[in-house]
User: Fold this.
Amino acid sequence: GENVEQHPSTLSVQEGDSAVIKCTYSDSASNYFPWYKQELGKGPQLIIDIRSNVGEKKDQRIAVTLNKTAKHFSLHITETQPEDSAVYFCAAFDGTSYGKLTFGQGTILTVHP
Amino acid sequence: SAVISQKPSRDICQRGTSLTIQCQVDSQVTMMFWYRQQPGQSLTLIATANQGSEATYESGFVIDKFPISRPNLTFSTLTVSNMSPEDSSIYLCSVWGTGDAGELFFGEGSRLTVL
Assistant:
């Protein structure tokens, strides 16, 4: 089955800096890669996603890149703000088992004012 | 995206008891799922809640421990049976989006602590 590795497990940045979180996946059949933000006491919120036919996608301060050959994808947050502090999860979907996402282990992002 | 409401939001339970978590969606959805998030861990799919038939469980999860109901296209329940401290987790209801997008959306979760 699919295996998703996520790094780093914790990331601390100063407000205004950029943050990058990286994930690798094992199943070459995976074709959809969402990113979730989970704030304390809340459920995961979908913030951006990318499909295998696209190499990069951007939404304001966040962007995601995908390298299918290397089987890795990354989340980039620019101009970080304290409210970006949360746990971020990457995930992969193999295109067949609807609803079944394989999640990375999560990254605790702390943005210091 | 659908609005997903879960009850209870949190509870403290005694060992050996059972608790039922409810999930209500504001629109009809074909596919509903239950995930578990153990403390400080990632998310793991427990089962797919099928309307009109038995739930489909992932490896490591069984119906006797996690019975699921799906009486209609907007509602599902997950029961955590005969609880032990190892069942202390966040239990999340989720739905698969309709249309071409196909994203997975989560409720706020039900945080269970078993003493």
Q: What stands out?
A: The longest strand of chain A covers residues 19-25.
